[in-house]
Amino acid sequence: MTDTVGAPSGRPEGPGLGASPSGGGLIRRRRRWLRYTAIGVAVVVLGAVGVGWAAYEKLNANITPDNAAAAELARYGKERPTALVRDAQNILLIGSDSRSGDGNQKYGRDSGTERSDTTILLHLAANRRSATAVSLPRDLMVDMPSCRRPDGSRTKPVFGMFNSAFEVGGSACTIRTVEKLTNIRVDHHMVVDFHGFKDMVDAVDGVEVCLKEPIDDKEAKLKLPAGKVVLSGEQALGYVRARKSIGDGSDTDRMDRQQRFLGALVNKVRSNDVLLNPAKLYPVLDAATSSLTTDPGLASLRGLYDLVRGMRNIPTEHVQFLTVPRTSYVLNVNRDQLMEPAAAELFARLRADAPVSVSKNLPEDSAALPDVSATKSSNTTGESAYDSSGDYSRDSSSNYEEESYGDGKSREKRPGGPAGGPEPAPTFRGNTAAEDACE
């Protein structure tokens, strides 16, 4: 039986399913097009992943693990300080003055040795709400333990300048010297040379500083006008290392300048135009990892990420910089010694993860003493840790006492104020990353 136009009953009018583009051929071609498109998208995605992985591998390979230091520290593991507060971290940052390596020869003759040009003990609070960077003067007179030289021989314990520890025994000797000096466990360390510092500054398109007077320092190869100036990497290196032509020529003044610069650098790196811009972020990461030597625990992007993950939300006003309380060494005014009891108080508070405060308004000759007036006015929970004469005083309620943990060992209690309340944080001369260097 046929329909009215002669087509067999039950069949649609017009050509068969495979006879034209409107039938099965179109469906098959559409399926092939979708399949090819999916393959193309997959290739693009895999290509992007490949580029990302290649970048990750490059950045990862930039970091040099300090295995020799790890082995040396393990050798003396039993004599190292124990950590008191879980999750608090102490990282030793070492700026090497080595003239070896790409671009470093211009800063002097390579003698085959290197010293710690800048050393900073960075304390990260367990709650990651604050970070305190303490500069350790290179001319500080300290007790150094027996250390392993690069040739495998060992030194005898000696009393000498702090920065010679790095020359004698590298980062392991420096770490053990710092731990002996402070009784603070160093959890991680990083060593960066001149080249890495310059690249970091250039990667963020320079860092702005404020100069009260023009600078013309031939030795530092630095000539800058007064006022606000954006420093390139080369200029920044000269600025933070110069001594003779800026300020009073002292190492204390130089450390203050370094701290202000680092605060400005922190602000620049944390700004949205860097962290949220991949085109700018990659060079920063590349510069930060190049010329970087770390303990094995940090010698990978993953290790570094785990360390800084909790630091992203620290307010800049809680990123603090200060110099360890110091004064001229009694036997040589060109050397330093710790100012006590202020230095001991600072170390004890960092070890116990107790807060400290900084103020740039303290006079330079009181660099190691808390700002009594500021402390009394800003802390309402108790009296200042220092009396009106400028000497340190602390009542019995705020002592660092020993507390038994039931395992046969005693550990220091965290400090507390009257009736178990928080002890007022002593104030030391320093600055925060939130402060404008031009104010």
Distance between the termini: 100 Å
| Structural class determined from secondary elements | alpha+beta
Q: Describe the main β-sheet briefly.
A: 9 strands, mixed
Radius of gyration: 30 Å
Task: State the helicity in percent bands.
Answer: 25-40%
Spans where pLDDT lies below 50 across 5 or more residues: 1-21, 103-113, 367-419
The strand order across the widest sheet is 1-12-7-2-3-4-13-19-16
Strand count: 19
Helix and strand run: HEHEEEEEHEHEEEEHHHHEHEEEHEHEEE
Q: How many individual helices?
A: 11
The proportion of strand residues reads: 15-25%
Q: State the shape.
A: globular
Please state the oligomeric state of the protein chains shown. Answer: single chain
In round numbers, the mean pLDDT is: 76
Describe this structure in words.
It is a single chain. The chain is 33% helix and 20% strand. The chain is an alpha+beta fold. It has a 9-stranded mixed β-sheet with strand order 1-12-7-2-3-4-13-19-16, with helices on both faces. It has a two-stranded antiparallel ribbon with strand order 5-6. β9 (215-217) and β10 form a beta hairpin. α4 packs across α5.
